[in-house]
Amino acid sequence: MPRTAPKLIPASQECKDCPIRHRAVCAKCEPDELDALEQIKFYRSFEAGQTVVWAGDSMEFVASVVTGIGTLSQTMEDGRRQMVGLLLPSDFVGRPGRDTSAYDVTAATDVVMCCFRRKPFQDMMLRTPHIGQRLLEMTLDELDAAREWMLLLGRKTAREKISSLLCIIARRDASLKLSRSGGSMSFDLPLTREAMSEYLGLTLETVSRQMSALRKEGLIVTEGKRHIVIPDFDLLLEETGDDSDGGFLV
To answer: Domain 7-134 in CATH: superfamily?
Structure first.
């Protein structure tokens, strides 16, 4: 993928008005702490398909995804590539204290990130316990989600994989909109069928077939290329193979 430069965007949006404020790394910050973050933040935008950072490259910044979807992937020596994670709005990119990126980070859709130079952010973490506390919570949630994903890739059927992915995205979308999960839900599917197949370890034909089956059975309704309506979230949840609590963290 081309190493095109990201676009820098003036940091005109105040932290208190940010759409991911209640879920991001700054969620627990007091007003004075937000003011301090305002002084060191900047925005970057990446076009769909553009690489944010390559595995092994120097990671000079950390960031929160504001809008759009990113992917984490690893490439083996023989060229085989596996997508190992999704970056949804409010997810954190990079690790304070780590100089290089462990994964290829790619914009699956057009992405806007709220960025902080790594060293100033690390220094602020030492002075601002609320940031460190929230980052720990997010890291532990990420660990739980990774363990759940091991179950999905290793044991779930194609139908359960597709249903699980749709439920994950629907729940995150509802959380960002501060709306309740359940009943009828709708969202814009951020991934192409090709990206879904790569992420879930399925063929493109299998993804298309399973999506068609869910649509024919009335578990989902598609409007246009990307808009998905789930008439009854609990019914779709039953197709994921998860326990009664729903399994995945969001």
So the answer is: Jelly Rolls (2.60.120.10)
